[in-house]
Amino acid sequence: MTFLLSLLLQMQVGSTPDAGAAAADSTATAANAAANAAAADLSLIDLIVKGGWIMLPLFLLSFVSLYIIIERYITIRRAASVPESFMPGIRNLMVKGDLQGAKMLCAQTATPLARMIEKGIRRIGLPLKDIETSVENVGKVEIARLEKNISILGIIAGIAPMLGFVGTIIGVIKIFYAISATGDFGIAQISGGLYTKMVTSATGLIVGIIAHIGYHWLSIMVERLVFRMENSAIEFMDILQDN
């Protein structure tokens, strides 16, 4: 009997360290789970707040970029909506000598191309060189209207990443200030500065990329419309020479 009691005591003592280790592992697992849950709960707004005041001008630039892209896209699309039958209709009316009908057709179309052709029709009777100059001048004015504010996108494409870099510098300053204030180099001292660096740099790059794409996309749309206007101007001058 005494032998059995001592054996049971030895087994209980031997199992105690294992139980303690298991409890420690459970505690560590719970702590890791809580940390992961906290990281998962970090929202977009929290990240923006971590970026600091530099996020305000970046958001302003992003709003301006999107506004210009949408507004210019709609304007250019409307300007390019010229029916394929427009120039053949102008030719037929001018061959018939119906200049008033040609003017009405231009007024009904109401596009940069139509306004350019209408100016040429109104100058009929003058030397061809003067008519051509008038058409070219109206075309330049219309192109300038189409390109309005597009150059701002190019400026934003250069400024936004630079502002993000400023945020990176601010983040580095925060890190070194925290280290000098505490005399310790650890996660607590560098985490805040790293948040500022990463968030502002990423935001600046995203805004710059959007503005860069919008600038070149709208420029291509304007170039296509300009090419079409030039061809129509040449065709209009050919009609005058034939008549």
TrEMBL record:
The keyword Ribosomal protein does not apply. The keyword Cell membrane applies. Keywords: Cell membrane, Membrane, Protein transport, Transmembrane, Transmembrane helix, Transport. It is found in: Cell membrane; Membrane. It holds the Pfam family MotA_ExbB. GO terms for biological process: protein import. It comes from the Bacteria. Belongs to the exbB/tolQ family. This is MotA/TolQ/ExbB proton channel family protein. It comes from Hymenobacter sediminicola.
